[in-house]
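User: quick one - fold this with AN7 bound?
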Amino acid sequence: MRGILHRYGDLLPLTEATPRLSLCEGQTPLIPLTNLGSELGVDLRVKFEGANPTGSFKDRGMVLAVAKAIESGAKAVVCASTGNTSAAAAAYAARAGLPCFVLLPAGKVARGKLAQALIYGARVVSVRGNFDRALDLAKQASEELGLAIVNSVNPYRLLGQQSAAWEICDELGDAPERLVIPVGNAGNISAYWAGFKKYGELGQTTRLPEMIGVQASGAAPLVEGRPFDEPETVATAIRIGRPVNAEKARGAVGESGGRFLSVTDEEILAAQRLLASREGIFAEPASCASLAGLLKIHEGEGLPQGQIITAVLTGNGLKDPDAAMGQSSTMVEIDDCWQSLREVLSR
Ligand code: AN7
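Assistant: Sure. Structure tokens for the protein plus AN7:
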């Protein structure tokens, strides 16, 4: 069985006492966007993290965070989440036989993610407040009750998430020239940057990518340089107003010569439709912020011809069926006879 801890164990802080937990996470496809890439005149690939066992990139860091929680003798894990972290925490805790408590912003978690947390057997607490408040409460639970917190304040999460950058470099034979990635709590962009730098130090790559972090315009604290007390966006995964890893992310973007930019909900949904209808790839709205951001740069200043670009698609489209159904053309219902069908097909 091959997961992150097996494949990249040499680069991770494992000891003999660290259980080699695995759901065979990682090794997700790096899919060339053959249609959109050629239209934009660039070598564009997407890292499809929706192919992870719980359907998002969170599995990469969670497998290490839960393994380390077991190693340290934790009796239970806790997290706050916009949805994907809770799904991953619940799955790995179930696998490890640990109780798991998840705090979710009430009414703002996509249905697929909620279904996951419930079926994996987590204790799900719906908090009447946004993600940032739920995270404050999760931290308090961790301090007062000694539960292991598995949000990205837990350093093992970001260490495990570096593996996505390593996989991209392993496959491309070098780092991409530009990386475009959605940003919520700002952990993943920080992890990718650390991962690229690590591979550079090891002599596995010759360059570092320009890092482009994309936020939703209704939850864009890193773009505007101020907290958002009431973040709002259709991309509920990144509906975050006070990113925990803001400093690290600013460092990554600054050092790489990149930038943060924001896209509207309309642009996010348009990118989601484009990706599905032109490339056959279904990613959740937050993920599509990356493509929306790239399209925005293309429209604004253009893209260097032939540039090697990777856009990270952080979560599976199936996570949020309502977001997709809400914008797709309605279906046709017919009587069960050939005449009715013929009419529809010849329209
Ligand atoms: C699909 O699950 O914060 O910038 O609690 O689910 O590292 O926070 C999710 C974040 C992007 C942003 N895309 O990553 C959570 C949570 C998807 C996500 C992000 C998230 P970070």
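One thing worth noting: The domain at 4-56+157-325 is CATH 3.40.50.1100 (Rossmann fold).
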